[in-house]
């Protein structure tokens, strides 16, 4: 397990103000677990409220527009989410790629906007089940990541986190084997070293995401090169999310 694992909850399209109590409970308990870095990505509508509610944990957004401002009805820019309290943005999530047709090029532009606004990027990547069955998961993920990441990133270690999330494991209760996760994370590390140089890339945390829960977290987090977890469903209550945070401590 990484020295200070990073456990990030992605609330997706869940949560109204009644969920602020969960954020508060997660924050209070995380204060006692300094060995773990904990963060939440609530929906836009709760971003500022969660930011005001918590003291210890990080708060981030689930998306941002690549542009600075202007006539983009319904969109939210990087500087807006930063102003609302976001310290990072999750980008490249498979649900945005699928539901909104987001391409690698668009994701790269969004990443550039988020970095320019002074936020960290959690860049997601992952293969479909068909790609894995064909034995092409690692080459697919390498290509996807290379095309989604900005070419130049200042202070890569502080600005970038990768989340490997096999699409077939998201919300399904299925997870890859520890060996498969380790192989993929090694492939991602090699790519990061190629792109950004060993000194910076060695320290970038590579999270695993896909059906992580309190029961399987210890095993998944013990895999080589796994620097933490991106958690969907199990981040929606303080009880289930804290079970993962405790397993990481
Ligand atoms: C996710 O979508 O980022 C995710 C990991 O979801 P879940 O934990 O529900 O599989």
From TrEMBL:
Keyword match S-adenosyl-L-methionine: no
Pathway: Carbohydrate biosynthesis; gluconeogenesis; Carbohydrate metabolism; erythritol degradation; Carbohydrate degradation; glycolysis; D-glyceraldehyde 3-phosphate from glycerone phosphate: step 1/1
Binding site for substrate: 10-12, 171, 211, 232-233
Pfam families registered for this protein in UniProt: TIM
One GO CC term on file: cytosol
Superkingdom of origin organism: Bacteria
EC number: 5.3.1.1
Signal peptide: none
A Gene Ontology biological process term: glyceraldehyde-3-phosphate biosynthetic process
Keyword terms of this UniProt record: Cytoplasm, Gluconeogenesis, Glycolysis, Isomerase
Enzyme class: isomerase
Active-site feature positions: 93, 165
Catalytic activity, as annotated: D-glyceraldehyde 3-phosphate = dihydroxyacetone phosphate; L-erythrulose 1-phosphate = D-erythrulose 4-phosphate
GO-annotated molecular function: triose-phosphate isomerase activity
Subcellular location: Cytoplasm
Job description of the protein: Involved in the gluconeogenesis. Catalyzes stereospecifically the conversion of dihydroxyacetone phosphate (DHAP) to D-glyceraldehyde-3-phosphate (G3P).
Family statement: Belongs to the triosephosphate isomerase family.
Subunit: Homodimer.
Listed PANTHER family: TRIOSEPHOSPHATE ISOMERASE
Protein name according to UniProt: Triosephosphate isomerase
Protein encoded by which gene: tpiA
